[in-house]
């Protein structure tokens, strides 16, 4: 909801829907303090209300070419990787949740994709969760429509779904960001370019992308995410 401060400064009032992924959104924004992300102006945790800096003109990063978008993200991600612990949910805990819910969700949905994808995702999550590197604040939904053009900085991240986890995990949401390009070549290129330029382990990034992509494969984006998961399995 668009709003203005008393001095006329443009702002946005956001009411946060209670959900495990939105826990500690305000804490993440406070920690970033406007560095690479929209600035938190005020918070009221009881109703879950956030008063945020308004991005103007607010156009999506996905409206730029894939290469331009990746240029922005390569510069943005390291600025968001703050060393953290509590109160942020550990990625290992989230991975354990996915390990528990993925098989039952797959069955309940009528087995919407081949078992080999499910098994590959489960194997990746089992191997990656206990062997992580340094724990930083990761935005687990940083895709082409959660980075907006602004005036204070050229581009700002919005809508964090924060976790404390290793840096490789932060590539998952970008790799599956089909609005940046939705072919196999696009998906593999995003994985290869981001892991190489950010000095990250490509195989770990691929495994996290596979696991989270299937964990989030539901609703309108099911077919996109399932196809992305197939390409990630082939990209090993």
> Roughly what is the average pLDDT, rounded to an integer?
95
The global form is globular
- Secondary-structure content class: alpha+beta
Distance, first to last CA: 43 Å
Poorly predicted regions: none
| Biggest sheet architecture | 4 strands, antiparallel
Task: Write up what this structure looks like.
With 236 residues, the chain is an alpha+beta fold. It is 42% helix and 14% strand. It is built from 8 helices and 8 strands. It has helices spanning 25-32, 66-80, 91-108, 115-128, 172-175, 184-197, 202-215, 222-234, and strands at 2-4, 10-15, 40-44, 49-53, 136-139, 147-149, 155-157, 162-165. The strands form 3 sheets. It has a 4-stranded antiparallel β-sheet with strand order 1-2-4-3, covered by helices on one side. Strands 5-8 form a two-stranded antiparallel sheet. It is globular.
Q: Topology of this protein?
A:
Blueprint (H helix, E strand, L loop, with lengths): L1 E3 L5 E6 L9 H8 L7 E5 L4 E5 L12 H15 L10 H18 L6 H14 L7 E4 L7 E3 L5 E3 L4 E4 L6 H4 L8 H14 L4 H14 L6 H13 L2
Antiparallel strand pairs: 1-2, 2-4, 3-4, 5-8, 6-7
Helix pairs in contact: 2-6, 3-4, 3-7, 4-7, 7-8
